[in-house]
Amino acid sequence: xxxxxxxxxxxxxxxxxxxxxxxxxxxxxxxxxxxxxxxxxxxxxxxxxxxxxxxxxxxxxxxxxxxxxxxxxxxxxxxxxxxxxxxxxxxxxxxxxxxxxxxxxxxxxxxxxxxxxxxxxxxxxxxxxxxxxxxxxxxxxxxxxxxx
Length: 148
Fold this sequence. Notes:
The protein is built from 5 helices and no strands. It is mainly alpha-helical. It folds into 2 domains: 18-88; 89-148.
């Protein structure tokens, strides 16, 4: 008995990833790899330092090193996961990028309002997040690729 699944298994047309999204995903992946390497070096470096220190303080240093290293490893995975989401055009990655860039803009402006930065530094810090946010929100190809 043969069933016809063609009505139920209609293939969606392949979505084309915009070049800008590809560039952002690759840069995020590169940053994530460096963060992961740094976290691993810190994890093992502090752990080895704790072993070298004699007595109780060595155990404390090792314990703190392991805890901080584990936290750093988890944080280093975030850009790698987001990069994969952007690469595969996941809707959650689109909205996560919009939220992260929006928060980056708010943080930069608040830092400037507290006199912790100069105007040229403010402008320099705002350029990339504003461009990425505008690209994600206003480019029709990006919105279509993520189906938002």
